[in-house]
Amino acid sequence: MATLKDIAQLAKVSNATVSRVLNYDQTLSVGDDTRKRIFEAAESLNYSKSTKKATTTKGKIAIVEWYTEKEELEDLYYLSIRIGVERKLIELGYEITRFFQNDQFDSLNNVLGAVVIGKYSPAQIAELKKMNSNLVFVDMNTLDAGVSCVMTDFKSPVKSVIDCFNEQGLTNIGMLTGQESTFDGVKLGLDPRFIYFKLYLENMNNYHPEWIYTGDFTPESGYQLTLKLLADHPDDLPNALFVANDAMAIGALRALNESNIDVPEQLSIISFNDTSIAEYTFPALSSVKVYTEQMGKSAAELLVNQLATADEIIPQIITIGTTLSLRNSSK
């Protein structure tokens, strides 16, 4: 684990600034450039140190991010995937060009191919395919669109989280989840973590819809949803809370702290993604470890292999497993 001092030295800021930024301190006035430097330093230091830059360039590959650069700082899951893609492509000898959602994608037809990160509407996918047929998506199942993709497993880790709570004697379980939309305004389906959460608890006859709150996947949304949970259930709070990502969990911890709810004694929390911020929260977050570096590497390798057989692109899906990292936010 990288220390706050390690991150501060790499980002060229103070330890206190690193701590406050990683905890999304709303009272801290700091520019987006500084925040970006800190988050990228934290992610970079938690990656494997074996990456070597190739001495020759084999061509240019694009990385397309479904967020704007500012939005990416609110959800380090996608930032960490992007860093994984970049490191692997550099190691393999490719030059990189980056596109965020508010950029023009016209030059995609001038690159060998693209790793596309995030969620896209059918119209967006069709448009991207027109610009360049050599695509690999990360974090979205695009097999139906005839495009290869890399995904993380959701079913097994959700079961692991619920089993963990039950083993601790925590059977009153709520959830904070999110609803996503693509950049062109198309609403996506239900969060798969929620789908498996609901199915598993229904099979146990222990599903409580009154403890399910839906917002978006940001710290502010996690904060507001938790305040609403506390206001709606002053006398019947759940004793465990599954939060769909670390960013929301950061907000939830802030709301609970302000409301003098002890974590984990009164309410245990387990999150999802286990990004670099999870180890620096107060208390440190228990979280499902998603191997974002491996997701990024796998997407890069899949695209490069696809380029070698461009005459016949056979769509395939790679699913990456997870592990549960238990820290101080759960008993």
UniProtKB/TrEMBL annotation:
Stretch forming the signal peptide: none
Record's keyword annotation contains Transmembrane helix: no
Any one GO molecular function term: DNA-binding transcription factor activity
InterPro entries xrefs: HTH_LacI, LacI/GalR-like_sensor, Lambda_DNA-bd_dom_sf, Peripla_BP_I
Coiled coil: none
HTH lacI-type domain segment(s): 2-58
The UniProt record lists the keyword Transcription: yes
Keywords attached to this entry: DNA-binding, Transcription, Transcription regulation
Gene3D superfamilies: 3.40.50.2300, lambda repressor-like DNA-binding domains
Protein name according to UniProt: Bacterial regulatory s, lacI family protein
Originating organism: Dellaglioa algida DSM 15638
